[in-house]
Amino acid sequence: PIRQLGERGGVPFPLRRRALGLFDQLRETGTLGVHDRHGTVGDDPGDRGLCPLRRLNQSAVGAIAQELRAAGAVPAGSWAADALRIPTRRPRWGVDTDEKTIPNEVSWLSTAVHLHKGCYRGQETVARVHNLGRPPRRLVMLNLDGSVGTLPEPGEPVTTGAGRTVGRLGTIAQHHELGPIALALIKRSVEAGTPLLVGGID
Q1: What is the mean pLDDT of residues 109-128?
Q2: Helices of type H across the chain
Q3: Which of left, alpha, beta for 121 (phi over 0: left; psi -120 to 50: alpha)?
Q4: Of 45, 137, 151, which is closest to residue 96 (Cα–Cα)?
Q5: In the chain, pLDDT over 70 holds for what percent of residues?
Q6: Helices of type H across 38-144
Q7: How confident is the model at residue 55, as a pLDDT?
Q8: What confidence tens digit (pLDDT) does each residue in 48-83 have?
Q9: Is the Cα torsion angle 119, 94, 89, 129 positive or negative in sign?
Q10: How many CB atoms are located within 10 Å of the residue 62 CB?
Q11: C-alpha Rg value of the chain to the nearest Å
Q12: Residue 38 confidence (pLDDT) above 80
């Protein structure tokens, strides 16, 4: 998440500027391939400043890591990336989605699906739901109870206090400010603010 450097406090702006300059240079030389939908990385508000990478030559990894560390960057793993991704409601394929997921439920209409171009399986369903504005489920962020020593697993059912299943759990992570958080696909009929349970835990 290079483009998030310096945006949330705690990382100096010069580091962010230097890191972005390095990535722009690598992209121009063909060393780095960046997934860019609109011509400039980060234009999409849904990105929330994230810079997704598609391809990086293995021979350049060491030099890039050394440059970023010299600028003050601190390496982080996939758990940290998940913790930053969850608050932005950015789904991960196969974790935050299931075999019934349609793009309308997970904000992919603005990032991965074109409503008026080409033909693809399920296009009529996607267009109909888009026109009606009523997707069957929606992707939400859950703030989990941190009193239990373990976290639930992706795929576990999300239920109401009465025991009715209303969704499925996706990515779970420990956020440095928010504590245990998760993404979940829940039924559209569930009102915002409804207390939900995962594995019997609030």
Answers
A1: 83
A2: 13-29, 58-70, 78-85, 123-132
A3: beta
A4: 137
A5: 69
A6: 58-70, 78-85, 123-132
A7: 53
A8: 334 444 455 666 667 777 877 887 777 778 888 899
A9: positive
A10: 9
A11: 19
A12: no
Distance separating alpha carbons of residues 135 and 102, to the nearest angstrom: 8
- Residue 112 backbone dihedrals phi, psi, to 5 degrees: -140, -15
Give residue 10's pLDDT band: very low, low, confident or very high (50, 70, 90): very low
Instruction: Give me the chain's average pLDDT, please.
Output: 76
- Contacts of 40-45 with C-beta under 8 Å, sequence gap 24+, read 41/3, 42/3, 44/110, 44/111
What six digits make up the tokens of 161?
């206090």
Give the predicted TM-score (pTM) of the model: 0.69
Q: Rounded CA gap, 170 and 155, in Å?
A: 6
Smallest CA-to-CA distance from 146 within 186, 177, 184 is with 177
What is the CA angle 176-21-56, rounded to 5? 75
